[in-house]
Design a protein that fits this description.
Elements (H helix, E strand, L loop, with lengths): L2 H11 L3 H15 L4 H20 L7 H12 L2
């Protein structure tokens, strides 16, 4: 790592957690820009699924059963 990067990391280590969190969010956003259309589709799908579950129109399987099945099928 360059000396500038080392200096930056030293400064970051002294910052309060809320500022560190904001920096992390900005860095991640710069690496993976938000895709509003995709985010909106995920939101819509999640809301539809919640409505189905509340109406009793969806089969719900506990997470531990799903993970057990994954381990059985894929050996992990």
């Amino acid at each position: 790592m360059s000396s500038k990067a080392d200096d930056l990391l030293t400064i970051i280590e002294t910052l309060p957690i809320d500022i560190k969190t904001a920096l992390v969010e900005k860095i991640l956003a710069s690496m993976h820009p938000l895709q509003k259309e995709i985010d909106e589709e995920w939101k819509k799908t999640a809301e539809e699924r919640i409505t189905e579950i509340k109406a009793g129109n969806a089969q719900v399987v506990p997470g531990d059963e799903i993970f057990k099945e994954i381990k059985e099928n894929y050996g992990r």
